[in-house]
Amino acid sequence: MSVTELAWFKSSYSGSQGDDCVEIAITEEAIHVRDSKDVTRPPFTVTRDGWTQFVRFAAR
Hints:
Blueprint: E1 9-10, E2 22-26, E3 30-35, E4 44-47, H1 48-58
Antiparallel strand pairs: 1-2, 2-3, 3-4
Protein name: DUF397 domain-containing protein
Pfam family, one: DUF397
Domain DUF397: 6-57
């Protein structure tokens, strides 16, 4: 599946003013993360376990 075919949605951690928008796309293998203002750059990808650890750390 290509990056353009992924179902992207705005992360709940993004700013409400629309200026700091992080979008994520979830697949069976990984979580893909991109800046909504620059979708031409490739997203970075983390494993599901890596994403879980990141969200746990960010929620502290």
